[in-house]
Write a structure and sequence with these properties.
The complex is a heterodimer of chains A (291) and B (271).
Chain A: H1 2-6, H2 9-13, H3 16-36, H4 53-60, H5 64-93, H6 99-111, H7 114-125, H8 130-137, H9 153-179, H10 183-191, H11 196-207, H12 209-224, H13 228-233, H14 245-255, H15 259-289
Chain B: H1 2-30, H2 50-60, H3 63-94, H4 100-108, H5 116-129, H6 135-158, H7 163-171, H8 176-187, H9 189-205, H10 208-213, H11 222-230, H12 238-270
Classes of the chains: A mainly alpha (291), B mainly alpha (271).
């Protein structure tokens, strides 16, 4: 009761800096992009409303299917690889001697930027690069391949690079989740003779529900908007074969100045990311409902 | 039990080796002698010349302005966003405002929006307001984008601060600002530190906003400068490019090694 009476104007003043930034830099542009997506804007002349034409053109783009397939491959692969490997490592590493060192090793690539990761793996996968000359040196000439020049191996190569870079954070997040499992429960199960396998599935896995939703939600959103690694390693090429929606949008809007069309791609991407994130986060967000 | 841990260690050692070999390749090739370097695979070092490469990367790639800008963006951007986010989180958790969920979603919801939605309008409005290619303009963008996740982390942590502590301080006659600075700020230190680390790293590594909203070498953040080097092998050799990426990664690597405990503690309290 007394709490309620004390709610005054000052309570809301604490929101002002955050709300102002979010409104000006995030919400206003979102509205503007939605508006631009229905216009023919190319930057110079005032935009003219053209209805759904941009969306129509987007759907009729002959490369769209390949781009969407790439997005799908990225999404499934980044859902399966870093999350699965990260969970495996987090589970194996907990309680092992030297766990901090192991965790550090997997987290190392995470501190490298997408640009650094791209530059390094470009050097590895390039046709004249380290992987091919390694294959030659161990007598596997027949495996030598132009990794970044053909579809879909260029996308798959870049996914390996992304997996290497992003698994470390998944390890840390799951480790935190595992450490939050009450110790008594684990000890009781061990006394009952549960081995690591049973321990994991019966005790730990159910307790990871919340953190799992966070990890999967973040991994999904990040993979759907993959940009840095692709931009550095292939630029989306050759002939747009390794483009993701984020790269297509950037190229259309900023290299070809097709603002309206680029906006339509961004809107499509946003709808895709929000829908999938909400579906994935639903389990974890239940906790938020009780604010 | 013994057998179990042997198996665990073998799995970990194998995975660690897989994870470390690209790092090893990064070092070997970044420090290789530029004159004799060819992209042939070799586990051994090919003419070890780290200092010369560092110097070349520094001067040829012109890293010093980008590095300076990045410290400006990273420290101020992460610091301000975490501060603003924690103010909002404090109000939502401790001051009982009306429409809590609405406030929460207005600030946090945009976290789900892909950056591509922001690029064009920001580019246009920056061009028309003179913010384009300025330090303060880009900083503003970083602060705003870093707020939602910092808000999420600090709010989660502040929920664990007990109501009694807040009420006791109010009975002592502390006003809201004092409650924030004397109770919530000190008690949320680890979560706010973790949020700072996260957002500093994100800002430090940003590519797309730097590419879109800046153009001059003085203003451009580091990754946007370096990404331009990767394509031009004729003029700049690969070891120099790799060396540049290595220099660019030193600050974040250092932060994580120093702050790992803080990072884990902050996340733990927030989960």
């Amino acid at each position: 009761m007394s709490q309620k009476q004390r709610v005054g104007v000052t309570t809301y003043l604490f929101f002002i800096p955050a709300i102002l930034c979010v409104l000006a830099i995030l919400l206003y542009p979102v509205g503007k992009t939605i508006y631009l997506s229905f216009t023919d804007s190319e930057g110079l002349l005032p935009p003219v409303f053209i209805g759904f034409d941009n969306y129509q053109n987007f759907i009729n783009d002959p490369v769209l299917r390949a781009t969407l397939t790439n997005v799908l491959i990225w999404t499934i692969a980044t859902l399966v690889l870093p999350v699965f490997i990260g969970l495996l490592i987090a589970n194996v590493v907990s309680g092992v001697k030297g766990s901090a060192v192991y965790r550090m090793i997997f987290l190392l690539p995470y501190v490298l930027s997408g640009v650094a990761v791209g530059a390094l793996w470009f050097n590895i996968f390039e046709t004249e690069g380290l992987l091919n000359s390694f294959l030659v040196s161990v007598g596997l000439e027949s495996w030598v391949n132009s990794w970044l020049l053909y579809y879909p191996q260029n996308t798959l190569s870049m996914i390996i690079a992304a997996t290497w870079a992003s698994t470390g954070l998944v390890v840390v997040l799951f480790t935190v989740g595992i450490q939050n499992v009450p110790l008594q429960t684990v000890e009781a199960a061990t006394l009952d003779g549960a081995n690591s396998w049973v321990l994991f599935w019966k005790i730990i896995w159910p307790q990871l529900k919340y953190i799992r939703a966070v990890v999967i939600g973040t991994a999904l959103a990040n993979s759907l908007r993959t940009f840095d690694i692709v931009w550095v390693m292939t630029g989306g090429g050759p002939s747009r074969t390794s483009e993701t929606l984020a790269v297509t949008m950037y190229r259309e809007a900023f290299l070809l100045n097709r603002y309206g069309y680029g906006s339509a791609i961004a809107v499509f991407l946003m709808i895709l990311v929000t829908t999938i994130s909400i579906l994935a986060l639903r389990g974890g967000l239940k906790k938020e409902a009780t604010l | 039990m013994k057998k179990d841990s042997l198996l665990k260690h073998s799995v970990l050692v194998i995975l660690s080796l897989i994870w470390l070999s690209p790092i090893y390749l990064l070092f070997v090739n970044a420090f290789a002698n530029v004159e004799t370097w060819e992209s042939n695979f070799d586990w051994s070092l090919k003419g070890w010349d780290p200092i010369a490469n560092f110097q070349q990367a520094w001067s040829v790639a012109d890293l010093s302005p980008g590095l300076k800008s990045n410290f400006f963006y990273g420290i101020l951007g992460a610091g301000l966003s975490v501060f603003f986010a924690s103010l909002a989180a404090f109000s939502i958790v401790a001051l009982n405002p009306k429409n809590k969920s609405l406030w929460f979603w207005v600030i946090y919801g945009v976290n789900l929006v892909p950056y591509q939605m922001l690029l064009l309008p920001l580019f246009e409005s920056f061009a028309s307001t003179g913010l384009y290619d300025t330090r303060w303009g880009l900083l503003l963008v970083y602060v705003a984008i870093a707020i939602p996740f910092a808000f999420f982390l600090s709010r989660n942590h502040m929920l664990s601060i007990s109501k009694e502590v807040v009420e006791a301080s109010q009975l002592d006659g502390a006003n809201k600002i004092q409650t924030y600075f004397k109770i919530f700020l000190p008690l949320s230190w680890s979560a706010l530190g973790a949020a700072f680390l996260f957002q500093f790293t994100w800002i430090w590594n940003d590519l797309v906003f730097g590419l879109t909203l800046t153009t001059s070498a003085e203003i451009r953040p580091l990754m946007s400068t370096i990404s331009g080097l990767v394509g031009q092998y004729q003029s700049i050799k690969m070891p120099i490019v790799l060396c540049a990426t290595l220099i660019a990664s030193l600050p974040t690597a250092f932060l994580y090694i120093v702050g790992q405990k803080l990072f884990v503690a902050g996340l733990k309290a927030g989960s």
